[in-house]
Each structure stands twice: as structure tokens, then as C-alpha cells.
């Protein structure tokens, strides 16, 4: 089956990666650049690309947990910036909805029927349980949760360790290379391929799809959004084929087979099945990848912490938590208020969009002492909100933690030190928070 796909000349193989497509588009159409005039309009991606978001959020936190932005290219919205307020909002999922019908989970608004008609476009939606409320969310989450139990993690650990070790052994020494491409992407796509039983030789498609699916700025440019939908449709067709193959086979341990043979599957439409697969690809891809890059960048920025790690491998489990806190690979999730309410002294109206900035919660000085420092001995590193909180808390958290722990353990076992040695390029987005490129050199310690 993999060969059959590999032989087909498919358009997505030659499509540019999302970030290049956007750069090219904006170079040709500079008039389409978005205007951000409000001082607290943190939907602008340049502050993440240039890594200068920290003082803006610190200023907001000092003034209060909620801030209303009345005008922005993504419409009006509330910034929710404190650890406490985000936990509070996430603990009330009926009042603060995740559902696609209300607005979904990112800062972007979906086009309404009128806008779609004006653009002569049809709606393309892949329903996912991250963007559903109870009770549907509960049922669908149940179909994938068994893939992430502690017992499953134990089953996967040897394989992850073996692949991680092999990859680390293959890295060049004394030569500059891109850590994002050679390590972060390779390990995370490889892991997802194993989890889904995805054809190994096509695994980079998972990265390609994830980049297009998770880019919030791409979705704001009509032509690129069209291209994005086209790519997602092709992805759905690929998975449909995998699904058809597995549906007629004995249940296997991979996630696709597990979902097909789960009782809740009877209540899931083919679109929902596809949507949830996409959710797992996107959820498991950029996030773990960007933490793997963040670890290297963080250790290089704080060499005292790298030294602590090198001298004391017992700190690795806590270092994993601290690196996730420090990186916070998803900058935000969004909720929509369903009823007028008062929230931390502010009047929030039904229909208002609330953007929960995990990036800010994880630097909240009320919870984390000296929050802008990476500190792998931090006692409460586990209190980070990078995985969210409440009923939608990341279902893949254990798998991400396992991959990151094994990476650090295997680096330590090889006495590997990774230095920044060239270009550092961050992701230009307000949703995915991470690195596009990280040129490094490996030495020993
Ligand atoms: C949900 C972060 C890794 C699959 C989420 C949410 C966040 C998040 C912030 C939403 C929480 C909320 O709304 O309260 C992360 C981070 C990761 C990571 C930081 C890595 C460091 C993974 C992995 C997978 C995964 C490895 C699976 C392969 C999901 C799914 C959901 C989710 C399916 C939806 C859960 C629900 O709505 O009930 N993740 N994630 N994530 N994540 Fe992750």
C-alpha cells in the first residue's frame, strides 16, 4: 500500500512547506499584511518569531488576569494571562466552550456562511474532539485514551529508546547540522508512524500535513487556505485508504485499528474519524518536536542548567517538566463564553472569545519564582499549564513526556553535549511556539 502511494505523482509532494508559501504570498501582496494597533494585540506573530513576547505578557499580568482587545485582525477577544484565571476558565467547560460551533480552539474565527458565500467557497470541516463539548467529547476521547495508558507507555518504551539511541549515534560529530530536521522532526514523526502503524517510508508526510494543518496565519489568507484545504483533503484520502485496509483485518495494536474496532466508533461519522486522526497527528507532532528543540536551545542559553543535567541524571524527570514549562509549545487555546458572566471583575458576554495564553501562565511570577529562568531543580515545574487543564487536558501528555525523558537519558548515556553553532529560526505563528531551524554542533562532556 505504501508503495502504491509512493508511486503516484501526488501534488502535495511538490507543494511548498507552509511557511515558505506564506512568505512568498506576503512578498507578492504586501497590502495584505495585517495591522495590529492595540498594544495588547498579541495575535501578531512577529513577537513570537523575534522572541520578544515576554515583557508584553508580563505587563498584562501585572495589571490583571484579563484584558479586552477591542480590535484586531482576528476580531475582538479577551487575553487571559494568569495561571489562576486560565485554570478557572478551563474548569468550567459548559460556560467556556471549546466547540467548533461556538468558535473552536484557536484565536482565529471561522468564516460564517455569508463570508463563505461571498468567497464562493464550501465549508471544509474536520470535526475533532478537542473542539467538542460534553457529552460528545467524552465518548470520542475514550476511543483514543487506551493508546496512552501507563501500560501502553511501558510497551512502547523499548522501541522509543532503541530508535532514539540509533538516531543519536548517527549524528555527525564536529559538524554543523539542523537539530530540528535531523532530530526533533525525525523522532516525533517516527513515533507517530509507529503509533498509527503508518507506512514508514511516507512518515515525513505527517510533518508536512501537520505544518499545514496547524498554521493559523495560513488560514487567514484565502488562496493559501484553499491550498491548505486541498492538502488536508489529500491527507484524508490517504487515511481513508489505511482505514479501509485495516477495517477488514484482525484488530492490531496501532491506533487506527484501535479506533476502528472501538465500540464508540459506531457513533462516529467518517469525517469525525478523519478529524480525530488529524488531531492526533497535529497534537503529537509540532508540540513534542518543539520541546525537543526547546531543550537544546534552553540548555545552550542556561549552561549552568546543562551542567547540572550532565552531573546529575536523576534530575531528568524534573528537567522534562521544566523544559515543557519553559518552551510551552502551544502558545494558546481558545474558549467561547456561552452566557453573560462576571470573571475576575470583568463583564464577559455570551459569544466573547477568550484566549488562554499558556505561554503567559507558565511565566506567571505568582506561581513560578524567577519564571524566565530555566531551572531543572524547580520544585513546582509540574504545575505548568502547557498541556492545558481539565477535561481537555492533553491526552498524549504521557507519550510526550516519555519521548522527552528517553531523549535526555540517551543523550546523557552518550555524554552528548549540543551547542548552538549557527542559525536559529523560530516559528512565525501565534499558536505553535517553537523552532523552524536550530543549527548545532555535538561534542562530548
Ligand atoms: C490536547 C499540548 C503532545 C494529542 C492538548 C491541549 C494542549 C496540548 C495545550 C489542549 C488542552 C486544553 O484544551 O485544555 C501538548 C503538548 C505536547 C502534546 C505541549 C507535547 C509536549 C501530544 C501528543 C499527542 C497529543 C504526543 C498524541 C499523539 C492531543 C489530543 C488532545 C490534546 C488528542 C485533545 C484532548 C481533548 O480535547 O480531550 N495538547 N500536547 N498531544 N493533545 Fe496534546
Automatic annotation (TrEMBL):
CDD domains xrefs: CYP142-like (cd11033)
Domain of life according to the entry: Bacteria
Alphabetized Pfam families for the sequence: p450
Keyword Lipid metabolism: no
SUPFAM superfamilies attached to this UniProt entry: Cytochrome P450 (SSF48264)
Keyword Metal-binding part of the UniProt annotation: yes
Keyword terms, alphabetized: Heme, Iron, Metal-binding, Monooxygenase, Oxidoreductase
Similarity annotation: Belongs to the cytochrome P450 family.
PANTHER family named among the record's database cross-references: CYTOCHROME P450 YJIB-RELATED, P450, PUTATIVE (EUROFUNG)-RELATED
Name listed for the protein in its UniProt record: Cytochrome P450
Amino acid at each position: 500500500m505504501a508503495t502504491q502511494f509512493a508511486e503516484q505523482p501526488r501534488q502535495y509532494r511538490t507543494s511548498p512547506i507552509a511557511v515558505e508559501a506564506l512568505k512568498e504570498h506576503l512578498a507578492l501582496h504586501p497590502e495584505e499584511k495585517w495591522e495590529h494597533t492595540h498594544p495588547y494585540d498579541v495575535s501578531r506573530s512577529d513577537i513570537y518569531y523575534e522572541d520578544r513576547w515576554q515583557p508584553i505578557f508580563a505587563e498584562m499580568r501585572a495589571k490583571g488576569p484579563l484584558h479586552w482587545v477591542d480590535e484586531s485582525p482576528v476580531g475582538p477577544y479577551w487575553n487571559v494571562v494568569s495561571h489562576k484565571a486560565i485554570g478557572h476558565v478551563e474548569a468550567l467547560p459548559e460556560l467556556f466552550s471549546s466547540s467548533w460551533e461556538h468558535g473552536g480552539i484557536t484565536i482565529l474565527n471561522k468564516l460564517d456562511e455569508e463570508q463563505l458565500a461571498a468567497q464562493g467557497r464550501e465549508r471544509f470541516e474536520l470535526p475533532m474532539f478537542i473542539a467538542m463539548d460534553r457529552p460528545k467529547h467524552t465518548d470520542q476521547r475514550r476511543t483514543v485514551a487506551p493508546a496512552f495508558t501507563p501500560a501502553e507507555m511501558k510497551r512502547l518504551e523499548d522501541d522509543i529508546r532503541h530508535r532514539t539511541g540509533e538516531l543519536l549515534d548517527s549524528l555527525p560529530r564536529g559538524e554543523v547540522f539542523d537539530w530540528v530536521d535531523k532530530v526533533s522532526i525525525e523522532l516525533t514523526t517516527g513515533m507517530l508512524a509507529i503509533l498509527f502503524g503508518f507506512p514508514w517510508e511516507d512518515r515525513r508526510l505527517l510533518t508536512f500535513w501537520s505544518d499545514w494543518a496547524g498554521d493559523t496565519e495560513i488560514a487567514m489568507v484565502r488562496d493559501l487556505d484553499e491550498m491548505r484545504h486541498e492538502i488536508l483533503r489529500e491527507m484524508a484520502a490517504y487515511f481513508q485508504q489505511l482505514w479501509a485496509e485495516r477495517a477488514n483485518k484482525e484488530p492490531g495494536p496501532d491506533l487506527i485499528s484501535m479506533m476502528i474496532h472501538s465500540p464508540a466508533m459506531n457513533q462516529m461519522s467518517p469525517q469525525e474519524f478523519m478529524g480525530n486522526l488529524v488531531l492526533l497527528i497535529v497534537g503529537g507532532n509540532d508540540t513534542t518536536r518543539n520541546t525537543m528543540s526547546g531543550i537544546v536551545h534552553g540548555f545552550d542559553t542556561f549552561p549552568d542548567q546543562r551542567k547540572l543535567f550532565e552531573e546529575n541524571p536523576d534530575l531528568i524527570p524534573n528537567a522534562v517538566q521544566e523544559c515543557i514549562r519553559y518552551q510551552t509549545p502551544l502558545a494558546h487555546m481558545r474558549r467561547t463564553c456561552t452566557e453573560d458572566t462576571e470573571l475576575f471583575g470583568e463583564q464577559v458576554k455570551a459569544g466573547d472569545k477568550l484566549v488562554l495564553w499558556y505561554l503567559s501562565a507558565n511565566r506567571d511570577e505568582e506561581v513560578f519564582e524567577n519564571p524566565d529562568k530555566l531551572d531543572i531543580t524547580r520544585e513546582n515545574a509540574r504545575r505548568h499549564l502547557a498541556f492545558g487543564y481539565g477535561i481537555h487536558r492533553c491526552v498524549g501528555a504521557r507519550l510526550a513526556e516519555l519521548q522527552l525523558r528517553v531523549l535526555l537519558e540517551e543523550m546523557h548515556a552518550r555524554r552528548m553535549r549540543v551547542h548552538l553553532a549557527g542559525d536559529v529560526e523560530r516559528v512565525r505563528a501565534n499558536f505553535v511556539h517553537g523552532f523552524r531551524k536550530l543549527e548545532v554542533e555535538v561534542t562530548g562532556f
